[in-house]
Each structure stands twice: as C-alpha cells, then as structure tokens.
Amino acid sequence: MSLIAGTVYFTQEDKTFFLVTDQPHSKFFTVKMHKHQGDTALGSLLNGIKGELGIDPNDLRLGELGAWHIKGGTTAEDLISLYTLELVEPNRVDLKRLSDLGMSFASAANLSDLLTSVDVTGVAALD
Questions:
Q1: Number of domains composing the chain
Q2: CATH number for position 56
Q3: Containing domain of residue 60, as a range?
Q4: Could you tell me which of 111, 56, 120 has the C-alpha nearest to residue 85?
C-alpha cells in the first residue's frame, strides 16, 4: 500500500486557491493505493476525490506532478507523489460537504509552509 496526495485548485482574479485540510496546519488530500489490487496512483486519487469529496473527475484537468514532504522533512523518506488538479467549474463544488469533511479552499498566500514542502525538481512539467 502506498499513500498518494493530491490537491484541487482554481484561480480567480489572479489568486490561486488550493483544496486542503482546514488550517492552521493544512495538509493535502491523501488516499491509499493498493498496487496488489491493480490500483494506479492517479486512478486511486480520482476515485477518492469523487467518492469522498464529491467532486466529479470530469470537472478536473491534470496540472503538475510533484512530490510532497508529508512530514515536513527534507529527505526522500517522507516524499509521496502529489498530483495537482485544476477545477474547471469551481461553482459546482459542494463547499458544505467539503467543510463537513474538514476541507476547504485556501489562498496560496496563506499556505506558504505547506507549499514550500512540495518538491518539483525531479518531475517533468506537463505542458
């Protein structure tokens, strides 16, 4: 079993908002992937986003790939895959459901500690 992380984001009026667990110690959404059951990382993440968060994967576009230091460290031991998914229709999201799950969209300006724990140096950009 592996842990996979992802965040849904959207940009509005030149500000980017990321879906994270509620603050003050925000984290990205995570799911478990079971390779022995034929799961893939992206498939597991999309199933979790749909089943747990109620966000339709058809409303998402794959953004960048990265790795997240889940424990806030700087070594490879705490790195897990991180997918960013752009939300095409932000107004279609059930914000109450997300709130009930302890998730919300937070401005990138308020997530500096979390965002600096993302490592994209070893990942090819998706253009």
A1: 1
A2: 3.90.79.10
A3: 2-119
A4: 56
User: Is 124 inside any structural domain?
Assistant: no
- Spell out the alpha helix ranges (H) of 14-102: 41-51, 95-100
Q: Which of 45, 62, 68, 42 is nearest to 125 (CA)?
A: 62
pTM (two decimals): 0.79
* pLDDT one-digit tens code per residue, 6-34: 889 999 999 999 888 886 678 888 887 77
Pairing of strands 79-87, 2-12: parallel
> Could you tell me if residue 125 is inside a domain?
no
Residues 6 or more apart whose Cβ sits within 8 Å of residue 109 = 15
Flag whether 74 is in a domain. Answer: yes
Q: Tell me the CB-side half-sphere exposure of residue 37, using CA atoms within 13 A.
A: 9
